[in-house]
Design brief:
heterodimer, A: mainly beta, four-stranded antiparallel sheet, B: 2 domains, two-stranded antiparallel ribbon, 2 strands, 6-blade_b-propeller_TolB-like (chain A), transmembrane helix (chain A), transmembrane (chain A)
């Protein structure tokens, strides 16, 4: 046959055409739809290179709260607030005292044996016996206190509802407030889509505030002027993702940052400069889509994470046991 | 004068106020900064094509149709047609991305009849009608140079082979089946399958799915040897054009005056669309013409009945192409699929707030439409098969080489072979 080659070619092409028609017709059905290419899939980011994990979980203890609220470590004691009480625990997990609180706590801070506890819009000052030493003026109804940081003569309160930081004296006298805004076009101010707004004071008495919408940590003077900041937006371990991260942070004894994130729950450490250092706890340690643990650290650089989902304190020690 | 001054001050004030107001409208959240080297594209919202430009497209179509008709009937210039088809390929193909086209407009017209809530645009209607009107008077000049799908195939014909008559006839049934299904699917609001399976639109837009690229390339590869395979054996619009062309008074002629029976044109048509002079003696000698004609004529009702039966039997399968029907069946047979968060269609249905009862009721209505529609489509295909068979035994006396009015694409190749001058 003269055109045998062409005919074979045509037959193959005809088969291809029919196959394409049939497979295209059968492929686009509700139970055979292709995976959503725009699906929010963070699975790959849950896997962390083991070499990046610098800490290991050494112990954990249940705290017996239905609704744990906050954690602080001071003078080798753990202060954990929840339900309507505050428990003082030693570093091995032994309960030293349990103080009844006048109302449901949101956050707790301890400085020089003085306990600062806040509800949504009021700060209470207590001693270690549970006596209320002072009850500060109530903030407005939109306020939502999420963190307190105290140093000599200054107490800073993070008000997520008012998107501001309020500065008080130790006696509760309001000394000022700031919202992180500067001249137009330079700073947005604090961007706080959800009540995740943390602040803390480091070993050099520098005030650092999280700007969660910007994935930034910002260093302010006590008067509220921005001094420096660093930010990392990334789904990778080096950065922060989502609407409001880092949700919590604390300082190690040498001024390094420890951060915790919600959504893709993980705890990480950063150098004083903001450079990523390593992972304390990878996402597989936590409940999927869980809350960001509240953080505290002791003088040995052990990290205490209040796991809201598992309702326990989880202690992470540096792997090399040298305090890194 | 004072008033003017006052207005002037107001304008100056507004002028200074405006930029400061705009700069205050800052993005609340920063865009994520990916660290993979990926650059965040800026958001673009494409504007719909302006109505005036749509009418301009209609004008271009009209101009191209007129020009091709003039080149074929008056100028008898194959080369002219070729240049026009290159323009068509560039304008309607690559520039207008193959849309809108008269072939797909079949579905818009059908849906406008079937769904009172659907209003067809004037442009789509004109695109559907103009080629048919031209074909009714002048033959398929639209196929010759005004169709981008035809143009892209026409340019890659390398070594056309002649197909056996039986194969030509058999493959020639596909456009009827395709048209039936396209009308059925459009009328039931299921799908616009002509657009979905358009093999060349992906090439025009350069963003087709892989399978559609394979389809387009396959058609082009086939087209190197079987000239314009999509036009001849798939195009549903060709059915309507073929019907119109049969009635065309001023169709292309191979010879400008009297045929001298030189046979030079006999192999000129790559589409096997030239009828040869008939040998009456042979037909009479076979003696089978009248008997076959009667038999085939009597068989037509049977073909129609068979088509209706097949349509009735297949309506359930065909209706599954409708997403509502398929979804209803899926949710009834696999209720647990409601818990599958990855099934977008199911999750979309659940999020819509529509109840299962409503879905099933709607699916039932669509299936009922498919029931009648499939039988009509089946009956139509049966009729086409019966008439096609009947045509094979109808004797038409021809003394010259003439183009088959129905199948001739008016490309003008045969004219170049004719030595007769006007």
């Amino acid at each position: 046959m003269k055109n045998k080659g062409i005919l074979i070619f045509l037959l193959i092409m005809a088969a291809v055409i029919i196959a394409v028609f049939v497979s295209e017709f059968l492929s686009d059905r509700p139970d055979r739809s292709k995976p959503n290419p725009f699906a929010y899939d963070v699975e790959e980011f849950k896997n962390v290179d083991p070499e990046l994990i610098l800490y290991e979980e050494s112990k954990n203890f249940k705290i017996g709260f239905e609704v744990p609220a906050a954690i602080a470590v001071n003078n080798n004691k753990i202060y954990v607030a929840g339900d309507n009480s505050l428990k003082i625990i030693d570093l091995s997990g032994k309960l030293l005292a349990e103080l009844n609180l006048p109302t449901k706590p949101q956050t707790v801070e301890v400085f020089n044996k003085t306990i600062f506890m806040a509800t949504e819009n009021r700060v209470f000052v207590l001693d270690e016996e549970g006596n209320i030493l002072n009850e500060w003026e109530q903030l407005d109804e939109n306020s939502f206190i999420t963190a307190i940081a105290a140093t000599e003569n200054n107490v800073f309160v993070a008000d997520a509802g008012g998107r501001r930081v309020i500065r008080y004296s130790e006696e509760g006298e309001k000394l000022g407030e700031f919202d992180g805004k500067a001249e137009e076009g330079v700073l947005h101010g604090f961007i706080i889509p959800s009540p995740c707004f943390d602040l803390d004071i480091n070993d050099e008495s520098d005030l650092w505030v999280v700007n969660p919408g910007l994935h930034a940590l910002e260093n302010y003077t006590y008067e509220g002027n921005l001094r420096s900041h660093w930010e990392r937006t990334s789904m990778k371990p080096e950065g922060f993702s989502g609407c409001c991260n880092p949700s919590h942070f604390t300082f190690l004894s040498d001024g390094r940052f420890v951060t915790s994130e919600k959504g893709l729950v993980r705890i990480k450490t950063y150098k004083r400069s903001g450079e990523f250092e390593g992972v304390v706890a990878a996402p597989n340690k936590f409940v999927e889509e869980g809350r960001a643990p509240d953080l505290a650290a002791d003088s040995q650089n052990n990290i205490y994470a209040l796991d809201f989902d598992k309702k326990m304190i989880r202690v992470f020690e540096p792997k090399n046991n040298t305090g890194l | 004068m004072k008033k003017i001054k006052y207005i002037l001050y107001l304008l100056i004030f507004a002028f200074y106020l405006l930029p400061s107001h705009l700069s205050a409208q800052q993005q609340r959240f920063p865009k994520p900064e990916f660290e993979s080297g990926y650059e965040q594209p800026s958001t673009v919202t494409p504007e719909p094509r302006a109505l005036s430009l749509e009418y301009f497209d209609v004008l271009v179509l009209l101009a191209v149709l007129s020009l091709v008709t003039w080149l074929i009937l008056k100028k008898r210039s194959r080369q002219g047609v070729l240049w026009v088809s290159i323009f068509t390929l560039i304008y309607f193909g690559f520039y207008r991305n193959g849309c809108i086209c008269p072939i797909g407009a079949i579905q818009n017209v059908t849906l406008s009849f079937a769904d009172p809530a659907y209003a067809i645009s004037l442009t789509a209607l004109l695109f559907f009608l103009f080629p048919l009107v031209f074909t009714l008077f002048f033959g398929r000049t639209f196929c010759a140079g005004a169709c981008p799908l035809g143009a892209i195939q026409d340019l890659i014909i390398i070594k056309p082979i002649s197909l056996p008559k039986w194969l030509n006839k058999t493959l020639g049934l596909i456009p009827y089946i395709y048209l039936s299904l396209a009308v059925l699917f459009a009328a039931t609001g299921t799908d616009f399958i002509i657009c979905r399976y358009d093999p060349f639109v992906g090439i025009f837009r350069m963003d087709a799915k892989f399978l559609m690229v394979v389809l387009g390339i396959s058609f082009l590869l086939v087209g190197m040897f079987v000239a314009r395979p999509y036009c001849r054996f798939f195009c549903p619009y060709s059915v309507l054009l073929s019907w119109m062309s049969r009635f065309s008074k001023r169709h292309l002629t191979i010879t400008p005056s009297k045929c001298i029976q030189c046979k030079l044109c006999s192999n000129s048509c790559p589409f096997d669309a030239i009828d040869y002079p008939t040998d009456e003696k042979e037909v009479v000698k076979s003696g089978l013409g009248p008997k076959r004609f009667i038999t085939y004529a009597l068989l037509i009702p049977l073909w129609i009945a068979a088509g209706v039966f097949v349509g009735e039997r297949s309506h359930t399968f065909l209706s599954k192409a409708n997403n509502d029907v398929y979804l209803a069946e899926l949710l009834i047979s696999n209720p647990e699929i409601k818990n599958d968060p990855d099934n977008i269609d199911v999750q979309t249905f659940l999020a819509s707030g529509k109840t299962m009862e409503t879905l099933v009721e709607e699916a039932g209505g669509i299936r009922q439409k498919f029931y009648y529609g499939s039988m009509i489509a089946g009956g139509f295909i049966g009729l086409v098969i019966g008439v096609t068979l009947l045509n094979t035994v109808v004797f038409r006396k021809r003394q010259d080489y003439v183009p088959q009015k129905g199948n001739c694409l008016s490309c003008g190749r045969c004219m170049d072979y004719c030595p007769v001058e006007e």
